[in-house]
Amino acid sequence: MNQTENKMRSQVLIDALPYIQRYYNKIVVVKYGGNAMTNTELKNAVMSDIVLLSLVGIKVVLVHGGGPEINDMLSKVGIKSRFINGLRYTDAETAEIVQMVLSGKLNKELVSLLTQHKGKALGLCGIDGQMIIAHKMETDADLGYVGEIDRINTEPISDALEKGYIPVIATAACDENGQLYNINADTAAARIAAALDAEKLILMTDIAGLLRDKDDDSTLITSVNVSEVPFMKRQGIISGGMLPKIDCCVEAVRRGVKRTCIIDGRVHHSILIELLSSQGIGTQFI
Question: d(Cα 105, Cα 107) in Å, to the nearest integer?
Fold first, then answer.
């Protein structure tokens, strides 16, 4: 390795130092989903990023979805996936499958992967310790057993963080009577971030961020003031599956999360680029 290469490598580490200091001992909530969960190479990059951040003293909370895996399992048992305004219609049978896939198979796979990357992880779901208490979401269209969050009990998460674990949270929830509900993972991540007084919420997606033209990555909007969101909805810039994601970012900011962003989970090490560089990646909400 020549002197120029050594200098470049050392400069990368020096440039990261102020950002490590900014987030040291602070909580960062990462909502993990999309292709980054199904592509093996991307999955390993995400796990190594999270372990690295944890080892330098940043408290990472990983909240995961699992849409593709849920779709696959529903298809195997002959149930067609339905979405209304970006949210999964969830009947009683679908709710059980969501819980099985998220809280069982996927959650434990992620814990195992983090452990393989020399991290210290603990799998949890919203039912554990009554972490996420919810009620049936009331909308114009009946979504079935889709829940709306009443409150977050942060004690199980805080206990895990204090003992040095990376909490890995599946977003199944229940009400006071034990009725199971499916909670949108973006929504859960936003509420968990707010309840933990997190320094940052990162939502990983399968697009570059919020785009003016959904088919053109060059139209990426790098920063959005939450007051602009209603106008952007009327213009159609925010629509479809982006609606719940943007609403989550807005709610997180209004509930006190310091920084919120949507990043492209298809980019290798996108979490590190967002947290430990001056330019970041994706769309920031302020």
Answer: 6
